[in-house]
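Aim 2, interim progress. The first record below pairs a target sequence with its structure tokens.
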Amino acid sequence: MQKYLLLFLFAFIFQLSLAQKKERKGEFYISWGYNKEYYTNSNVTINQPDLKNNFTFKNTLLVDHPGWDEGILNKALSIPQYNYRFGYFLDKNKDLAIEINFDHTKALFKDNQLIHMTGTFNGSMIDSSFIFTKSGQGTAENYYYLNNGANFLLFNIVKRKRFKNLSNEFIAIDGLAKAGVGPLIPHVENKLFGKNNNQGFQFGGWNTGLEYALRSTFRKKLYLELAGKLDYAYYYNLDVYKGNAKQGFGTMEFIFNLGYSLPMGPKL
């Protein structure tokens, strides 16, 4: 009896050790980082029916406001242009994932730029240029900011390519190609001809993006990721004084993330 008991115990321990060594089918990951943007020029159309205004600012120059270039530790982590990703690899090869992809980006009219304005203003046709500046006085004071965020949210499909010849037991090098669509959640802050809006967050359109990331994973857990991204965003019904605005622009974005991977799901 003791012989069979020992044999059973050995078999149980052996099976348990095998089970512990089995891989999980899925893999969850999460990351946080910061970004830098370059924008295409943008036409911004303003409609203010009560003021008899329906005009367009043509080819406006947009700039970002990284924040982290002024120091990260001297302000809250969420004030600079940050980004986060949540993803889950679905298959046993861990090369296909779904991902929630959010970039807190800031898009501001460049101050003191020469703006070409066409359309209807105060009920009269207009086709002229003027200096758009926050330092103006009275009706000459103008600014237009997506300053607490142009805020790109994407639901991505992710495909991973493992570079096995560049990897070893300590570090794994992967490439991740991503594509997705999602809503825009901008924070709108502006003052046009001396009249400011009620600034705040709102649903404000849709965007689509393509991203490619190089990921270096250490000991299968902690990783660093450097990514480039192209995004097109179209905003509409944005709040301005007694009216709304619409615009579209493209973005070239560079992203640096720190992340963590965690095996999840059933064991193989």
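The second target in this work package is listed in the same format:
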Amino acid sequence: MTALVIYLVCEPETPVLAEAAVEGGADLIELGIPFSDPLAEGPTIQRASERALARGMRTGRCLECIAETRTRVGVPLVPMTYAAILEAFGYERFVTETRAAGATSAIVVDLPVEERPEVPRVQLVAPTSTDERIARCAASTDGWLYLVSLTGTTGARTEVSPALGGLVERTRAVTDVPLYAGFGISTPEHAAAVARVADGVVVGSRAVQVAEEGPAALRAYVRSLREAIDATR
């Protein structure tokens, strides 16, 4: 079954929202640890991160958010953040404490594959990655490989990146790890298109937008994605 991954920023309401997303059919929850300079994020997640920081969601409170989310859902939880957060918090401490809180792995957007091998994490590759780079990331990734379907920042788009198909083909030529694709996926039609070529669909910015309307809206939105994905089988 094609996996459906939903991204949410760590805020006080996030555990309840994550529970709603799982009820709607999410198979994995990414939990964004807010950062003041999120280079890979578009305006929607930037605003959510700024709001979370203004509400006091520093790393310690994000760990509490992960732990509370774990009491509500049984699916994998993957915190997503930046190297500066781990640098300040401590790399090994981050791994130890996120795992103790219930995290399954991590995504560190700007931490090169060559650095900090003691941090198990999902690696990212993009259409600009060389075949050698893709192979190296695939060999080091923790569980699955994140395919960034387009160059630039996250954000809802009107269509799935035409570069995704080629990236999937190149990546499948060097690895058999599961390939989950994200960036720019926002509608059920997008999700279905990605499900036809990848092993997982990652939805971020649009999920964050819908989450602002509350758990019921998020549950219904995720269910619409799940139904579209399942219809491709």
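Residues 215-230 form the longest helix (16 residues). This observation will shape the mutagenesis plan for the next reporting period.
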